[in-house]
Specification:
seven-stranded mixed beta sheet, globular, alpha/beta, 15 strands
Length: 256
């Protein structure tokens, strides 16, 4: 089986093509603009590499959470009904309705088509430090498993913590789609992985390719993909980092 292909759309949004299935992570398709929240206004600064109309049919959207515009903006919400299924948090599925299916951590869903099968397992995620849950809300990541290829781990918006370490203990992922950017909206508290978290994740998935997303396009991202690349190079592990060119389908395999 050929290696999975990844197309970076922008921010946390990537198209994953694996085993004949097409999956889209956290859809964001708007242009630049502001998104007021009760405690902060998020500002989008970048354009998507592809428009929603250019994506084509997808079997499922993997939505880490629905409550923040940098993971689901207006164009992303409009896209959801076009997907075969939307897999997200249990509370998110109740809010979204329609084709949304809620998964708790370690719960799985299966996609089938023409005798092919894809298993998607929700994984724990924590959107900031311990105790942030009442403010940030529920979040999940995902592990994608298909016959003939190693699992793909989509971290979703999370920091490094014991839940991510448990994913590493349970799944020998060949590719980690890592939501980085050190997002900060509450002072110095980072809500997504900073470079140290990313390095810790890479250490616990020692033979996986690390594919960073969620590190450009929004003003509250405090670290860039270039910062991540510099840190990995300083530690001599930059050969494991796969930087996706925006809008270009790219095969990514585990390092040999």
């Amino acid at each position: 089986m050929s290696a999975p292909r990844f197309t970076l759309i922008g921010g946390p949004t990537a198209l994953i093509e694996v085993a004949g299935f097409r999956l889209l992570t956290d859809p964001t398709f708007d242009g630049p603009g502001d998104y007021p929240l009760p405690h902060v206004t998020l500002t989008k600064t970048g354009h998507p590499a592809l428009a929603a109309a250019d994506i084509g049919a997808v079997d499922a959207v993997l939505l880490s959470h629905d409550q923040h515009a940098d993971n689901l903006d207006h164009g992303g919400r409009d896209f959801l009904p076009k997907a075969g299924r939307v897999l997200t948090t249990e509370v998110g599925a109740r809010r979204l309705g329609g084709n949304a299916q809620g998964l708790k951590p370690w719960q799985s869903a299966e996609l089938t088509a023409n005798g092919r099968r894809l298993r998607i397992t929700a994984t724990p995620a924590r959107h900031g430090p311990a105790g942030i849950e009442p403010l940030a809300g529920d979040v999940v990541g995902f592990v994608i498993e298909a016959d003939g290829t190693r699992p793909i781990y989509v971290t979703g918006d999370t920091v490094w913590y014991d839940g991510v370490a448990e994913v590493a203990r349970r799944f020998k992922a060949g590719v980690v789609l890592l939501f980085a950017g050190s997002a900060q909206t509450r002072g110095a508290i980072h809500l997504t992985m900073d470079v140290n978290d990313a390095i810790e994740t890479a250490h616990h998935f020692p033979d996986a390719a690390i594919v960073p997303v969620h590190c450009e396009g929004w003003a509250h991202f405090r670290q860039t993909c270039a910062d991540l690349a510099a840190a990995f190079k300083a530690l001599g592990i930059d050969g494991r980092l796969r930087m996706l060119p925006p809008g270009v389908a790219t095969e990514v395999a585990a390092p040999q």
